[in-house]
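Deviations from the work plan: none for this task. Representative record:
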Amino acid sequence: MTSQKILVIGAGELGFQVLRALVAHPRRPATIAVLMRPGSIDSSSPSKQKQKAALQQLGIDLVPGDIVEDHERTLASIFANYDTVVGCTGFVSGTGVQLKITRAALVAEIPRFIPWQFGVDYDAIGRGSPQDLFDEQLDVRDLLRSQAQTHWAIVSTGMFTSFLFEPSFGVVDLENARVNALGSLENQVTITTAQDIGLITAEIVLGDEDLFNCRPIFIGGDTISYGELAQLIERLTGNPITRNVLTMEKMQDALASDPQNGLLKYQAVFGQGHGVAWELAGTWNQQRGIQAETAEEWARKNWAGSLNPGSFGRAHRLFYAQDPFSRPMAVHINHAQFPGDVQAIRALFLGYAASLGIDLTFQSFEEELDSIPGKYATTEGGALLIARNSDPLNSHDDAPSNVIKLGLPDFNATPPVTIGCVALRRSSDGWCEMKRLYVLPEARGLQLGDKLVEAIIDQAKSLGYRGIRLDTLPDMLAARRLYLKYGFVETTPYYDTPLKGTIFLACDFTREL
Ligand SMILES: NC(=O)c1ccc[n+]([C@@H]2O[C@H](COP(=O)([O-])OP(=O)(O)OC[C@H]3O[C@@H](n4cnc5c(N)ncnc54)[C@H](OP(=O)(O)O)[C@@H]3O)[C@@H](O)[C@H]2O)c1
């Protein structure tokens, strides 16, 4: 079922990402609304005004409502206008609110409901854990399981990735070069970023599969032990990291002397080490080949800024590209398949050569075209990635007219349209070479070039290369900016070229951070 009217409760860190992903989804429904406190909608504070403007620009209806102050009946009468309600407010105002929202959803007889349970596996943790708020999540599950009218899904995400790195959570203490392991260094935690939770939740709500079959869906970007986290930080920062274990005993003592401390309660739950981590291979996203951001990717992005290459997941990566003034599209980047993709790759390579406006004879370009995949074959230690606009787009009658003007060739066509590519081939001394990075002119402005570079860097790493080299020309400013962003620096020529002014760049993985 494709839901036609969706209400998201809350537009905070998580709610906003869910809303953005719903709006950008190729099956964007006619109505997407957000329930917000009237005071927040009417607030004159610049940050609230900015939030309101951003939501309105996305075409989201703002619905006044207060999950704490409003009576269950009032909430039910709001919910009754929607097919799907997604709770994204977290534990606001302590106990009782999550149950109230759930009762309101059931009274309203909404067809589909996702309660705010984007976190740990509450069933596995059970009642009576150090975090007393969690018991209410089990009450919510009991209530949902006691009925059959409203179909529900729970998206178990593990900890928000940003929270694991949040200094106030007390695990990653960069200032003192220390990791405080909760329970033990072997204890694991599953993490997912708010952005990925948004994308995956939108896919769960709007995708093909009927996932509202009344059970939790496990997703994840990474499952990492505190010991591995310490190693990762050591590798990224180049500094030794002290491993400090907060044993359950220590945490229980701390809680005994400060029983209302919410942070200590969370730490203790994670310290128990059950219900907080699951195998990534079994997650809903991984089983569909959708990679979410790992701890390392998060750290590179947030700590290293533009100096270091970020990697955007392995071969198969789904993202929604959207320009506010164009319509959204879903893009898949994966390995080109042969012989099926030969013609598509040939067309992209020809487009690439035409865009350069130079004679590529010296690179044996004709031969390359005739032997695709050639040196880029996986059997040769290469990789050839192709980006496809994979889903036909909805054009809603009520969509603003500026939402259907991207003008990609055959944009509504199925099967998918190929819109970009990038390749790598084995070079010498453990290096590989990036080649044929190309995005159709009509698909530019959507950060597809970034995603292709991220994907090929990831490939190069997974193939065990020490780094990537490439050549470019002085007037290719946009490409040079892109390479700079991903950590490429100028290097000595690694082959003889007749093209005057050729710039040679290298991204050495062994020198990262
Ligand atoms: N699993 C994890 O590891 C993890 C990590 C971090 C956070 N969390 C939890 O996730 C929750 C959601 O995360 P978040 O980062 O999105 O939180 P957030 O940024 O604090 O957003 C909370 C949202 O709820 C809204 N809200 C608050 N009180 C409300 C009320 N009475 N009626 C209607 N809306 C109300 C807020 O709106 P206003 O703008 O009006 O305040 C805001 O939009 C957090 O509260 C936290 O409990 C979990």
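Residues 342-356 form the longest helix (15 residues).
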